[in-house]
Design goal:
The chain is mainly alpha-helical. About 50% of the residues lie in helices and about 5% in strands. The protein has eight helices and two strands, in the order αααααβαααβ. About 15% of the residues are buried.
Amino acid sequence: MPRHPEPPSDEPLLFDLPLEIPDRSRASEPPPEPRRTRAAVAPAPAEPPRPVPVKTAPPVREMEEEVADDPMDAEHGVEIGSRFASGGADLLVHAAVTVILLIGSRMMGIRPDLADWPAFALFLLAFSFLYMVVPLAFWGHTLGMAWSGLVARNRDGEPLTFDQTARRWLGSLLSAGALGLPLLLTGEGRSLTDRISGSATYRT
């Protein structure tokens, strides 16, 4: 008897099965969550700039009171008696040096005559220049000024320069040559020596 072809079955054949075995564990896992990106951090608002305090100038009256209370103010004049005492003490130092010079010449057997006085005068001028300039430049006073309690400074209270000390020495020579008359005319203000040197004399 002839064979009739068998009807196709619904079962899959061996070669029709999938080669990969499905992983049941993966099927039970939840789907991965989408990656969250970090939100951009907004910068903190900048603080407003703080107002800078402005220093106001003090009133004119307060400034005048401060200047008036300043002991180095040029308006605080020195008494004429203190100036004369200072100059007299410095003259005594010069006189003592002159006497020592004459005694030393006699001890060496030298008898000075009128022809030798220019040399003596030149020596005294050199001594007077060093005696005035060096102490004024370094300490602001000579021996006579220190004894009288006086000091010389710039108008702003700074120490004197060598140029100013040299001009003070010249002013002192003029005052001594005029027998102290410029001091009497000046009174308690700035003396001729102060004006020539651009300085002022104060009390310590």
